[in-house]
Amino acid sequence: MPLIIKDEYPEVLFREDGKRLDGREKNELRPIKMEVGVIKNADGSAYLEWGDNKIFAAVYGPREVHPHHLAKPDRGILRVFYRMATFSVFDRKRPAPGRREKEISMIISDCIEPILFLELYPGTSFEVFIEVINADGGTRCASTTVAALALADAGIPMKSLVSAVAVGKIDGKIVVDLSGIEDKAGEADLPCAITWYNKEISLLQFDGDMDLNEMSEFLDLAKDALGRIHQIQLEVLKSKFLTIQEKSDEIIVNKENQGES
Predict the structure, then answer these.
(1) I need a surface site. Which of 38, 121, 152, 244 has the fewest CB within 10 A?
(2) Which residue has the higher pLDDT, 228 or 7?
(3) What's the CATH code of the domain at 128?
(4) Which residue segment(s) compose the domain that 239 sits in?
(5) Coil/strand/helix, residue 106
(6) Contacts of 228 (CB under 8 A, 6+ apart)
(7) Contact at 8 Å (CB) between 196 and 163?
């Protein structure tokens, strides 16, 4: 891939062999790596590498609401804090949260809140802290995905997971999972997320130019990609709990052996 200097982007986003600049097919996701239980003092946590995106999410709660006037007597509240590290982008970012970070925090909260049984925790709050260590396009979708994983790791009652991905159009062709270059130099960008318990769209934003036929193709590609992301989430969680079960079985066997001796 050519070196990108500030806002200078290539005019053509496909190679001569028909593949994208990073070697992917139009419907191919960037490499995804997920891990849970990465922050020991958090109630739940997760780490995500998605292409060149590197993102941590930590969950704390249920705990007392501060300031107190935000508490709700009949249900808990979800508070999301999305932040980008100053070194996560090419030009150093201001340390203070900007308008975009506040907007994405609200978007992620609205996307995830429907899957939580907050009515079980009146007067309390769950707080999700998301830190983007390195950004390369699609951070709101990646952050939504890793936040849902961290909440599941915390053992909070949930109806299902949430998965998110951005589809878009570059050089007149519809593609899945826009990279940073494709996001900035492409013609359209459509981040979307799905709640799996009812298979409804919980996030749908749009920026760019497309017609209704393209929109239908966008959503079909997104549905397939979201299913693949969901499977990765499930496998990561299953792997953790299988490891816990194996350790528990070892402890039981050791105790039984000690008792026999």
Answers:
(1) 244
(2) 228
(3) 3.30.230.70
(4) 32-260
(5) helix
(6) 29
(7) yes
How much is the pTM?
0.89
* 52 CA to centre of own chain: 14
Task: For residue 163, give the nearest of 148, 182, 181 by alpha carbon.
Answer: 148
> What are 145-191's pLDDT values in tens digits?
999 999 999 999 999 999 999 999 999 899 999 998 998 888 899 99
Do 175 and 169 form a contact (C-beta atoms < 8 A)? yes
Interatomic CA distance for residues 22 and 15, integer angstroms: 9
CA distances from 170 to 185, 189, 200, 210, 213 (A): 8, 9, 27, 11, 16
22 lies in some domain: no
Cβ–Cβ < 8 Å for 55, 143: yes
Please give the average per-residue pLDDT across 103-127, as a whole number. 96
Task: Judge whether 49 lies within some domain.
Answer: yes
Tell me the two tokens of residue 209: 């130019």
Collect all residues with Cβ–Cβ distance below 8 Å to 27 and sequence separation of at least 6: 175, 176, 221, 224, 225
Token duo for residue 64: 């007392």
Contact 27, 176 (CB under 8 A): yes
For the chain, what percent of residues have pLDDT higher than 90? 69
Residues 226-246: tens digit of each pLDDT = 999 999 999 999 998 888 777
Contact (CB, 8 A) for 58 and 129: yes
In contact, 63 and 125? CB cutoff 8 Å: yes
Q: Strand 124-134 and strand 77-84: pairing?
A: parallel
Residue for token digits 């079960």? 245
> How many distinct helices (H) and strands (E) make up the chain?
4, 10
pLDDT value for 89: 82
Three-state SS for 165?
Answer: strand
How many structural domains compose the chain?
1
